[in-house]
Amino acid sequence: MAIAAQLYQDGREAERHSVEFDATLRDPAFLPLDVVVEDLSTGGFRVVTDTDLPLAAEIGLGVAGIGTHGARVVWRGEGIYGCEFLIPLKDDELRMALSAPSFEPLVMPSPAPRNAAPEAGDEQQQREQRSGLSLRSRLYSIIAAAIAAWVVAIALGWIAFRIVGGLLH
Fold it and tell me: Does 103 or 137 have the greater pLDDT score?
């Protein structure tokens, strides 16, 4: 009995490495997502996430040891996505990614979309979000700290004056 078989290539140019590590993926809106990378090669990766990523979406993958690299979604299944790097990884970058210890993904602020012009007040609002205080609250805090510093300086001066005065009598 003979079995007919046909050999074919799957279109991959690089060897895939089975891995399982946490990474940070930037979705098309530049929002950070915690994902698990299941395989990695110089040409691309397979990632697991609950977030819906459309085909051909441009994303970014942040991997410990090599930083963030742009990629494109080329296939998708139920919660699994195949992506290709826009610029393939260099061999040394792949080695670093495969040997880097796994870290907790960092939550980074989302950059504004590339084509969006900053609106009036956006910069002020971003400063307030970073500090957690409004401009008025920060100003009051600075004034209160300055007054407190002067009170401490005067109190220390008075104490020193009393001590020196007591030693001279």
Answer: 137
Structure tokens given for 10: 């799957």
Average pLDDT over residues 137-147: 88
Q: What is the largest CA-CA distance in the chain?
A: 120
CATH assignment of 17-99, among 2.130.10.10, 1.10.3370.10, 2.40.10.220, 3.40.50.720: 2.40.10.220
List, in order, residues 6 or more apart from 99 with CB less than 8 Å away.
65
Q: Which residue has the tokens 């990523």?
A: 53
Secondary structure of residue 54 in the 3-state scheme: coil
pLDDT in tens, 31-72: 898 899 999 999 999 999 988 999 999 999 988 888 899 999
Start-to-end CA span in the chain (Å): 120
Whether 29 and 111 have beta carbons less than 8 Å apart is answered as: no
CA atoms within 13 A on the CB side of 21: 22
Tell me the whole-structure pTM to 2 decimals. 0.53
